[in-house]
């Protein structure tokens, strides 16, 4: 149990609470917490409560060990790709430079959620500060948007390499490659800046419990004092654009690639072309498949448990699998990683 003094420290002095005791277990807290519905300005709120994965203490320790292991493997796998590209001169080509940047992006993406999730699993109060919540919100969605843009330019690179092989060296120069990489990062981080600023200025009332392991826009908007249909419309309009436009570019690039590959007379040539694209297509399928399941259908169709599982898959599991996919299906990358790891 938490005393009234510790409760004031956790929830903040400006949030009236009509109970003197509150259960420390997050699942019990979800049922027994009775917070006043008096509107409170966002500036007086010290944080939100992320329920995460409500289970026994033993279960949370097991989840901590599992996610910590996944996080370390993700850092090692993507870090190995970055180092292999950095130190192997044969991989200093646009394709592998893009892959190294993509691996760095994956490390950043998983770091935006997992460390806080691990701390949450070991914490008793499950509180994330107001600023911390919106910073996580901003970085998670900005990095996700950047990943979509990266997948699109990697598909464009494969299109040039297969469909216009003679012009490829003159088109995909080091300067163009650098400009594409910088554009992905800038677009990704600018896209959600205004919506995040607008939402962070809104007032929140009543319960501050978010039944998720990260700060997601759906639960946050549900906690606002007044419905803001204009803001919800702006957010729902802007959010799909970084998903849809890169997806259309990816599909268009591979449609042209398929058209060219099918005209290749030899079976060996077709296999080589498909092998070149196979790793990237697998990564696109994993990421977009899970994201479309999450955001491509009405939120009401997913309960909180399903939302957590799907979010875990595309934000934690996919970055873990990407190095495995690229190293297994690419001989040059496999050799470079074996050389780097001295296997």
From TrEMBL:
It is found in: Cell membrane. GO terms for molecular function: G protein-coupled receptor activity; olfactory receptor activity. Residues 77-326 form the G-protein coupled receptors family 1 profile domain. Its main location: membrane. CDD domains: 7tmA_OR11G-like (cd15913). The chain crosses the membrane at residues 61-84, 96-115, 135-156, 176-198, 243-262, 274-297, 309-328. Gene3D superfamilies: Rhodopsin 7-helix transmembrane proteins. PANTHER family: G-PROTEIN COUPLED RECEPTOR, OLFACTORY RECEPTOR. Belongs to the G-protein coupled receptor 1 family. The lineage of its organism: Eukaryota, Metazoa, Chordata, Craniata, Vertebrata. Keywords: Cell membrane, Disulfide bond, G-protein coupled receptor, Glycoprotein, Membrane, Olfaction, Receptor, Sensory transduction, Transducer, Transmembrane, Transmembrane helix. This is Olfactory receptor. SUPFAM superfamilies: Family A G protein-coupled receptor-like. InterPro entries: GPCR_Rhodpsn, GPCR_Rhodpsn_7TM, Olfact_rcpt, Olfactory_GPCR1. It holds the Pfam family 7tm_4. GO terms for cellular component: plasma membrane. The keyword Transcription regulation does not apply. It is a multi-pass membrane protein. The keyword tRNA-binding does not apply.
